[in-house]
């Protein structure tokens, strides 16, 4: 490896540090191209790697880095807003700056999801706004074995109501104005669906909670129930939502894959487990964080605006079955 870079640890996170001499001749695109195999290996082993020392970057710089680092870049996945014309660079899902966005594995509620995620702080927040990481493999060690077994056997049923006035529309998520095209995608991806007389679309997708890493074979906790379960909302938001929507008409909800209710105490245990292994760092302008989406979950701390983060993702894989642990690369 070049003398211009060094690997270190910061608060338990692997840091790929570019020194001042290297920063004079390298940019993030060059680092992604030259050290591609090293960065991908560190991300798979450590769950994430932070590239630091290159200074401010542009959306175009970030886009070029994603092209070099990822096998196939995901362009506009339907859940995020694009940050450029091609859609390969996006911005995170909008969420209240004053509240923590809980830990999750990106798109783990979908049939298809990215293996690698890239984040960069184009504009770090003046206060807060960190991107905490939690080792998804360690989650299986800190969670109660009986709880893990229950979720592994049953999976998670993600329930969503489009057109409720909360969240993105089904048209934007499915990339179509056609009901028949949306229905065809639901069938392909194992999503149950039902249209309401008021134009709403209700979907139900059962996904695994434990998966094997497609490259290393290691088992990981791979779920997003804490983003969907009402008990994980803050008190004010939960009371507001339940005052407007009937229990079976919530914009988002989740159950065990067999349809039974996930107990609030279980969700509390899951949140406590994430918190107990969380690692974090403060963003520096120009940092690029590479996250292995199966090995590591990520979150977002509250912050004082303004703040702008860039996101790119790629190397998609998909579930082989609704509750299967095995995964395969899309199109292989």
Automatic annotation (TrEMBL):
InterPro entries given in the database record: AlphaKG_dependent_hydroxylases, TauD-like_sf, TauD/TfdA-like
Tree of life domain: Bacteria
GO biological process: antibiotic biosynthetic process
GO MF term (any one): oxidoreductase activity
Keywords linked to the UniProt accession: Antibiotic biosynthesis, Iron, Oxidoreductase
Required co-factors: Fe(2+)
Membrane as UniProt keyword: no
Pfam families named among the record's database cross-references: TauD
TauD/TfdA-like domain location: 21-312
Oxidoreductase listed as a keyword: yes
Name under which the protein is recorded: Protein AmbC
Organism: Streptomyces alanosinicus
Lineage, broadest ranks: Bacteria, Bacillati, Actinomycetota, Actinomycetes, Kitasatosporales
Gene: ambC
């Amino acid at each position: 490896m070049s003398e211009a870079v060094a690997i270190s640890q910061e608060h338990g996170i692997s840091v790929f540090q570019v020194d001042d001499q290297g920063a004079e001749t390298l940019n993030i695109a060059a680092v992604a191209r030259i050290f591609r195999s090293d960065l991908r290996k560190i991300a798979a082993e450590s769950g994430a790697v932070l590239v630091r020392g290159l200074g401010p970057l542009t959306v175009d710089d970030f886009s070029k880095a994603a092209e070099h680092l990822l096998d196939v870049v995901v362009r506009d996945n339907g859940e995020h807003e694009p940050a450029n014309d091609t859609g390969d660079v996006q911005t995170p899902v909008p969420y209240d700056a004053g509240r923590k966005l809980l830990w999750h594995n990106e798109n783990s509620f979908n049939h298809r999801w990215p293996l690698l995620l890239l984040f960069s702080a184009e504009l770090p927040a003046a206060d807060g706004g960190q991107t905490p990481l939690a080792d998804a493999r360690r989650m299986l060690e800190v969670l109660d074995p009986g709880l893990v077994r229950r979720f592994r056997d049953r999976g998670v049923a993600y329930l969503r109501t489009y057109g409720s006035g909360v969240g993105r529309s089904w048209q934007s998520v499915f990339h179509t104005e056609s009901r028949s095209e949306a229905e065809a995608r639901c069938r392909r991806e194992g999503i149950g669906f039902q249209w309401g007389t008021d134009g709403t679309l209700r979907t139900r997708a059962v996904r695994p909670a434990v998966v094997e890493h497609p490259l290393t074979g290691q088992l990981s906790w791979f779920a997003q129930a804490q983003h969907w379960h009402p008990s994980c909302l803050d008190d004010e938001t939960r009371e507001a939502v339940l005052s407007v929507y009937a229990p079976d008409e919530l914009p988002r909800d989740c159950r065990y894959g067999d349809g039974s209710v996930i107990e609030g105490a279980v969700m509390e245990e899951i949140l406590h487990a994430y918190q107990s292994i969380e690692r974090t760092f403060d963003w520096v302008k120009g940092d690029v964080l590479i996250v292995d989406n199966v090995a590591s979950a990520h979150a977002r701390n509250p912050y004082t605006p303004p703040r702008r983060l860039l996101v790119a993702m790629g190397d998609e894989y998909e579930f082989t079955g609704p509750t299967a642990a095995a995964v395969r690369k899309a199109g292989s």
